[in-house]
Specification:
This protein has a 3-stranded antiparallel beta sheet with strand order 1-3-2. The chain has a single domain, classed as Arc Repressor Mutant, subunit A. Strand 2 and strand 3 form a beta hairpin. The chain is built from 4 helices and 3 strands. By secondary structure, it is of the alpha+beta class.
């Protein structure tokens, strides 16, 4: 039951905005990081990015993507390409 004066849709939207998915599809991971799907697949093949499958879906943990971004930022700060 919703509190008085708050429409149900608002509560659903607020809840969705606060939940961060534990893992993303490769397509969603590409949008999340700004990298192409091809780049992500190459990184997975080289062992630079961990992923897993559930059924036929290839997923990447958001924590892994955050770490990837953090490493890139740290490397840039140290003067690496």
């Amino acid at each position: 039951m919703n509190p008085p004066g708050i429409p149900a849709r608002t509560l659903e939207t607020d809840m969705t905005d606060r939940i961060k998915p534990a893992a993303l599809s490769v397509q969603d991971a590409a949008a999340y990081t700004g990298l192409s799907r091809s780049t992500l697949y190459r990184m997975m093949e080289r062992g630079e990015l961990a992923s897993f499958k559930i059924g036929i879906r290839r997923l990447i943990r958001t924590a892994e993507l955050d770490t990837l971004i953090d490493r890139a930022v740290d490397d840039t700060a140290l003067g690496y390409r």
